[in-house]
Amino acid sequence: MSFEELKKIADDKWDELASSKIPVIRIGTAMCGHAAGAYRVLEELKTKVKSKNIEINIQEVGCLGICYAEPLLDIQKQDGPRLFFNNVSIENVDEIVEKYIIQDVIPDTGVLGYLGDNGPIGTESSIELLPGIALQNRIALRNGGHISPNDIYQYIANGGYYGINKAITTMQPSDIIDEVKNSGLRGRGGAAFPTGVKWSFLVGSKSPTKYILCNCEEGDPGAYNDKGILESDPFTLLEGLTIAGYATGATKGIVFIRHGHNGPINRTETAINQAYELGLLGNNILGSQFSFDIEVALTGESYVAGEETALMEAVEGKRSMPRSRPPFPAAFGVWGNPSNINNVKSLSYTPEIISKGSEWFSSIGVNKSTGTAIVCLSGNVNKPGLYEVSMGMSLGQVVEELGGGVSGNKSLKMLQTGGPLGGVLPSESKNICIDFDEMRAAGAIFGSGGIIVGNEDICAVDLTRILVAFCQFESCGKCFPCRLGMEHLLEIVERIANCESKLGDMDLMKSVGGTMEAGSLCGHGQLGFGPIRSAITHFESDFKSHIENNICPTGSCDVPKIVPKNTRSYASDFVPGEKNVR
Amino acid sequence: MTIEQDNLKSRIREAITSQKRPTVTVLSSLLAIQDALRFIPDEAIEEVAISMNTSTNAVYGVASFYPNFRFTPPGDHSIEVCWGPTCHLQGAAKILESVMNKLGLESEGDTSDGKFSFRFNTCLGACSQAPVISVDHELFGKMDPTTSLNIIDQANSNKINH
Asked: What is the rounded distance in angstroms from the CA atom of residue A1 to the CA atom of residue A91?
């Protein structure tokens, strides 16, 4: 089928949904909604409408970004707007069904707002006026909360696959690479390397088999951006990955997701199956000479599997331990074939870059950080969420305006950015803008987009202890500077947290950290000291209080210090019936 | 060979051969067995080694590396508590303490009555709803110690649901 034919079918289906005679109910069931109880609400809703013999059309959708409002459901009645009900509990469901669906009255519990051309039902205002929506500029997550991630036609009706069609019919692979280079797109996995340049490394290789790997291992605590994209709109990733395949001459794409994250896994696999059915994957895509396959592979639980060479080891089914470089992946990657590893976010931008052009993309953002930043805001903040904003927004604006300020009327003390290998910034960093280079200069990184807010009640030693414990737990153990270094750092930080530090502990940490930076094989060990360094730079007094006065300045360290221990065995033989215990 | 062993081996082989994803590796086979049996028996290490034409040590090396594999049958209900930084700042330590006290555990592990298996989780992926716990793979956000214990009691009174 041609793209035009597909688009026609998709548009008709979308119009049908938009003018549905029975109420269309969209409910966010991404991980943020799931944890807020969306599936329990959904069950209750199904039971309720069944008992009242009401016909409804339920669409499970992803995330609008305003996760604080979850469970979030919106109801679109015929010729009406989409009316949003926020923080819905099982107890609210009856009232919503009885009052709004049956009687056409807005329940007393109120609504978040409306969306659509038909105007409000009553006095409610548009959800587009909420800061959490208004301040966003959604590109990768443009369809989040609006389309069903389980229906490829909804994606196509909303502009999907226009990019790959344009690429295949009007552009040479080299044009695509130039376009991505010109857009200024930099990798969103943490290293911020220019995506177009990375792709060009793969072009020169004459190998008949070339891989593009998409990294959705996302073991970062404090970030669910990649999973959020896959649960909200897996098609944008698949289209981006296919464009990357066309541009680089790769033959196969592998999306690598952590075992157990069933929402992202199921939605991605459903999307892949649908794309194959419509000829948008497989042989002769959209009737062209271009063929490309995509599959999902799973990793076991391992944060280091997010490192590109460790990822390749895991794809091959081994322990996810990084390889020495060179050779680099573009020369010797998965099973020795040339490979290119990209983050979910980076790939998810490319359909829109190709559709709208590199100039459009590069006009968004600041300096050498073009496009948008997907911020996963969490911690002591009123309105946590998954916000996609233009690069260049200040951290202060993120916390105050998007996040609605620090929760509990407390004041801001620290911002932990860039994941567990990032940094801890003080409240004075409010003026720092989300810009890869500016944040790096400030001693933190933007990384994969997590921003964790800590209020005045949090002791920097407490947060540092958790970050170090995470890094120790996740060390793969291949190189000793990281394996032993993390263990020592955790021991020292735990000592300090317990007000039992020894003379010279601060210097000892710096010395161990320096060795790790110089001698570790991959970023896990090289960057693992980062959070400690920034914490002792910006919050020296917290550490001093513990070391010199034997007291935690805020009391937040006075909690049970329960952290898991690294149980990865480094060398042990398999003996049936013995010691194979976990 | 006993009938139970025979049965176990055939379930393992079934899990290995019925994988739907095209790339079959040691890791993918182990994950498939873990999904089917909920643990990795010794026989699975041997069967994967045979099917992937490698040594039992190489397979065990992979299985022992990833903390989601377990080598003994789990309890009836799985309980995971997130200890990541976001959840920690919002009270995860107190939840961990009360859950572990309730289960009578000092670390990860199974209760002696075989009802619960408890694990730490580094991030359950719903930081906006922190602190988060997972009971029988269902996520529960904005937890506190009391509510967490109620949810565990509730799970215990429900039918066993894997």
From this structure: 47
Cα separation, A178 vs A167, whole angstroms = 12
Which secondary structure element, helix H or strand E, spans residue A470, and what is its range?
A: helix A460-474
B31–A31 CB contact, under 8 Å: no
Give the confidence band of A447 by pLDDT, cuts at 50, 70, 90.
confident
Instruction: Name which of B90, B20, B30, B71 is nearest A462 in CA terms.
Output: B90
Distance (Å, whole) CA A74 – CA A58: 10
pLDDT digits (tens, 9 = 90+) for A381-404: 999 999 999 999 999 999 999 999
Q: What is the pLDDT of residue B5?
A: 80
Residues in A touching B90 (Cβ below 8 Å): 379-380
Contact assignment for B64 to A582 by CB distance below 8 Å: yes
DSSP symbol at A410: P
Interchain proximity B94–A560, CB inside 8 Å: yes
The CATH number covering residue A406 comes to: 3.10.20.600
DSSP string, A3-56: HHHHHHHHHHHHHHHHT-SSPEEEEE-SHHHHHHTHHHHHHHHHHHHHHTT---
Q: Which residue ranges make up each domain of chain B?
A: 3-65, 77-157
Q: Do A295 and A347 fall into the same domain?
A: yes
A255 and A348: one domain? yes
Cα distance between residue A416 and residue A409, in whole Å: 20
Domain that holds residue A445: 372-455
What's the fold here for domain B77-157? Glutaredoxin (3.40.30)
Q: What is the pLDDT of residue A206?
A: 87
Query: Would you call A378 an interface residue with chain B, using a CB distance cutoff of 8 Å?
Result: yes
pLDDT of residue A571: 62
Same domain flag for A182 and A221:
yes
Instruction: Give which of A88, A299, A466, A566 to mutate to test B binding, by max B Cβ within 10 Å.
Output: A466
Residue type, A444: A
ipTM score above 0.85: yes
Listed by number, the residues of chain A in 257-316 with a beta carbon closer than 8 Å to a beta carbon of chain B are 259-262, 295-303, 314-316
- pLDDT band of residue A318 (cuts 50, 70, 90) is very high
Q: Is B161's pLDDT higher than 70?
A: no
Domain total in chain A: 4
Residue from B63, B4, B71 nearest B37 by CA: B71
Residue A565's pLDDT band, with cuts at 50, 70 and 90, is confident
CA-closest candidate to residue A307, choices A448, A435, A125: A448
